[in-house]
Design goal:
Spore Coat Polysaccharide Biosynthesis Protein SpsA, Chain A, 7-stranded mixed β-sheet, elongated, alpha/beta, 21 helices
Length: 664
């Protein structure tokens, strides 16, 4: 294929500048020879050079160089969250609006995208916004501009307090699991990663997108809004890699844009907007790489309706913004501005082309993803253990005051054998005068740093009342908080999950003050669990004691997992916890005399009743043993280990938490 491409270009050069013949027979034979060779190279349809065929051969030749996407499982992913930025707008065309809304939903449902920022005009219908404003995975940003510019988006991102990896995308583009590779790319220096779109040609499978815009405006002279029939679609020219529908960057790029005062005041969605932006970045020395053209990170274009707004194609206005267009000075999307059958960009030497003879793509087009991967170390480093998992205590000011919390913490730290370090986080219901004493644990050799977060839950919500211990008429008179009679632990748990969702840890081991270690390798064991391939978002324990009442909870169709456990800090966990909280709210409203359900029970109940196909999200493991009811108080450790030899921690009420583990 590569030789075909070169042969075709070589013939184009000869055809454009034919030799000077001295014999009359040669002068007369030349047109016939041209016609014969044209038919052989370009096909029957070409009186002039077949523009579409030229572009497609060029692109196909480039795609033939694609190297397999490398295995990045042993590389450390960037701990920062991936935030998708896109616009929400309504066109008035039902088919097009359905496409746009379904695509936004697809991105919200993508578990590898941590957060969505929707930019919407202030006049958009409130009924459309409502479902997004209620979704904790989505942040709505209203503006009053007719069209947003790249500068608007970049300034918004620069004003954020948290450092994210940003993915700016057109509204009609979605992503598969390859989007996670954005966290493996190198952001050491300011860089702008782009993704050329992929499309499914009428069910024929996904391939590099087709350039309907060029076809409609400059080649076929057809009205842009015309739907391209299947018979024509396959022969359209491919989009070349200067075109992108999505781009990724971080704060280093944003700061460099501000430092150099680079003009990014270019309306998004207008013709040539991405080319103008890339040109200005290129001229300013900003590194640029297209990581989507070869399909390493796929940006899927959802535009089967083919409804387009021709006002977004300014043509001549855009050409004025492009200095030094080669060779004619016109907009590059003209056949008159072509070299060897393909229209080119603004100079003989730009970021896209390697040279002017064969016009091969430069290394801007990434065919080997290893060239742009972060050089992160393997998962054996101390830093990675810190980023991978933290130990988190869900605790109360009362437990701190009584010393129960300190006894549990010191028990775990006294009985640990590991060369790894982790962060230790305390999430407390209310602030206590002695909470600063917890920072002393930073001196332990296995603790990297200590964080204390106090939520200051109001007293009227910080309650735990068992309704079965009170007559119904007494319960009916109570002012019950929205999360019920167990509102205290429920508020603490759900606020903790929300707080942790903003942290960089991939996992957190949630403990309570009545937890104890039963093996000195507990820390290494749970760090190893984090490195294993798994489908769960919560690894915990069903009740494993002897109390029959707890073996079959009345408000669950199946034994529920205890709240103590290993949590995978991702989007799917947040969705599950949001649904769990909604179930608590609904249960409290509908059960007049009961109004009591704990967060862990609600989570299990939601899975069993509303998402039974997702049972794999919660995993019962014997490395955690739940014997928390009072009936199991002071259970013998040897008995636990005999029954559960893989146990590493025990959730159990005990008379003394200070020293129980025999290390002989």
């Amino acid at each position: 294929m590569h030789s075909d491409w070169k042969a075709k270009q070589l013939w184009y050069r000869v055809r454009k500048d034919p030799p000077e013949f001295t014999d009359d027979w040669a002068v007369k034979a030349w047109p016939r020879l041209v016609n014969i060779i044209d038919r052989g190279i370009y096909g029957e349809c070409s009186n002039d050079i077949d523009y579409n065929s030229n572009v497609n051969l060029r692109v196909t030749d480039q795609l033939s160089k694609t190297l397999p996407t490398p295995d990045v499982s042993k590389l450390i992913k960037d701990p920062r969250k991936l935030v998708l930025l896109t616009q929400l707008y309504i066109t008035g065309d039902k088919s097009r609006d359905s496409e746009l809304l379904n695509t936004i939903k697809s991105n919200i449902d993508n578990l590898l995208i941590d957060k969505i920022i929707l930019f919407v005009h202030k006049d958009i219908d409130d009924s459309i916004l409502k479902k997004y404003e209620e979704n904790k995975e989505v942040e709505v940003y209203e503006h009053d501009k007719a069209m947003l510019t790249y500068d608007d988006i970049f300034k918004y991102c620069l004003n954020q307090k948290t450092d994210y990896i940003y993915l700016l995308t057109n509204t009609d583009c979605s992503f598969d699991k390859s989007v996670s590779l954005l966290k493996n790319l190198d952001y050491k220096n300011p860089v702008f990663y782009t993704m050329t779109r992929y499309e499914n040609y009428y069910g024929k499978g996904y391939d590099v997108g087709k350039d309907i815009q060029v076809y409609a405006n400059y080649v076929s002279k057809n009205i842009p809004l015309r739907r391209i029939p299947h018979s024509e679609y396959g022969s359209l020219p491919y989009i070349e890699p200067w075109s992108f529908d999505a781009c990724a960057f971080d704060s280093k790029l944003l700061k460099e844009l501000k430092k150099q005062s680079i003009d990014c005041d270019i309306e998004i969605g207008t013709e040539l907007c991405e080319i103008i932006l890339q040109y200005r970045l290129h001229e300013s020395g900003i590194g640029m790489k297209n990581v989507g053209f070869h399909g390493h990170i796929k940006c899927y274009h959802n535009h089967a309706s083919q409804v387009r707004n021709p006002s977004n194609w300014p043509g001549k206005e855009a050409a004025k913004l492009l200095p030094g267009i080669y060779p004619t000075g016109e907009t590059p999307r003209k056949i008159t501005n072509s070299i060897q059958g393909c229209y080119r960009l603004r100079s003989k030497h730009n970021w896209l082309d390697k040279d002017t003879l064969w016009h091969e793509y430069s290394d801007f087009v990434v065919h080997d993803l290893t060239t742009v991967l972060s050089k992160a170390t393997s998962k054996s480093s101390e830093t990675d253990s810190v980023n991978n998992m933290c130990v988190l205590y869900l605790c109360t000011a009362k437990e701190l005051q009584q010393g129960m919390l300190q006894a549990s913490v010191e028990n775990f730290l006294r009985n640990v054998e590991s060369d790894k370090k982790v962060d230790l986080i305390f999430c407390m219901d209310q602030k206590h005068k002695n909470h600063t004493d917890l920072y002393k644990y930073k001196s332990h050799e296995n603790i990297n740093k200590v964080i204390v977060k106090c939520f200051n839950i109001p007293d009227n919500k910080n309650i735990y009342t068992r309704p079965w211990l009170h007559p119904p008429e007494e319960i009916e008179q109570l002012e019950v908080p929205e999360l019920g009679l167990s509102s205290g632990p429920n508020e603490l748990f759900y606020q903790t999950c929300e707080y942790m969702s903003s942290k960089h840890y991939k996992y957190y081991l949630m403990l309570e003050a009545d937890c104890i270690p039963v093996s000195v390798d507990w820390l290494d064991h749970y760090l190893t669990k984090c490195d294993e391939s798994n489908d769960w978002v919560l690894l915990s324990s069903i009740y494993k004691g002897e109390d029959e009442n707890n073996n079959n909870q009345w408000h669950s169709d199946s034994p529920y997992l205890n709240g103590v456990g290993l949590y995978k800090n991702n989007k799917r966990l947040r969705q599950l916890m949001n649904n769990s909280r909604k179930l608590v709210l609904q249960f409290v409203q509908e059960n007049r005399f009961q109004r009591f359900i704990n967060y862990d029970t609600a989570t299990g109940h939601h899975i069993m009743c509303y998402e039974p196909w997702n049972k794999q999200l919660v995993y019962d493991s014997d490395c955690i043993v739940n014997m928390s009811p009072s009936r199991d108080k002071d259970v013998d450790i040897a008995t636990v280990l005999k029954q559960f030899p893989d146990a590493r921690l025990l959730h159990n009420k005990r008379s003394d938490y200070s020293n129980h583990l025999k290390n002989e």
